[in-house]
Amino acid sequence: MSENKTIKIAKNELRAKCLLERTSLGEAQREEMSASICNRLLTYISNQDIETLFVFWPKKFETNIQAVIQSSGCEILLPRMTGESGVMNFHNYYSEGDLEINRFGIYEPKAHLPIRVPEANSLMIVPALAVDESGYRLGYGGGFYDRYLAKHPARTIACVLDRFMMQTIPSDQNDISVDVL
Hints:
By secondary structure, this protein is an alpha/beta fold. The chain has one domain (3-166): Rossmann fold. It is built from four helices and eleven strands, in the order H-H-E-H-E-E-E-E-E-E-E-E-H-E-E. It has helices at residues 3-24, 27-46, 66-71, 144-151; strands at residues 52-54, 75-82, 87-93, 99-101, 107-109, 115-116, 122-127, 130-132, 137-138, 156-159, 165-166. The strands form three sheets. A six-stranded mixed sheet has the order 6-3-2-1-7-10, with helices on one face. A three-stranded mixed sheet has the order 9-8-11. Strands 4-5 form a two-stranded antiparallel ribbon. The longest helix is centred in the N-terminal third of the chain and has 22 residues, at 3-24. It is globular. The model has no long low-confidence stretch (mean pLDDT 94).
């Protein structure tokens, strides 16, 4: 078996374990953890020269970062998937009226909104199921963020519950680590 196939199998097993554990958290516990993460994110943002946030709209069972979206004082951009090719772009977000649901059940900005790329004063808050000590993240397996970051390098921070911080996560040459945990 090839090394890439072995890594893919290990990631899929870890992904299933993390998803099961995350969905087993109670709503109150998840909201408490989300509030703690939002407070840390807002503190980090206020201590940096951040003008633009590239964020995600949280799905059910994900860390709810809407407080960051609403309270950061930064310009907000959200990802939009285009076509079947796995391309992701970030579009301006102004209000919930700018959102629609895609084929994955994820809220994303409408296609007519302006597309932007990260600049020096930007921060990308990246969703993750788990993150390791080197900053490698375990996502949902689509590779959207890794492909995007390979083309558009950005300052990144992982958004993950503390219990999903791990010593190591299987990674390969296509995986891009985050800058801040």
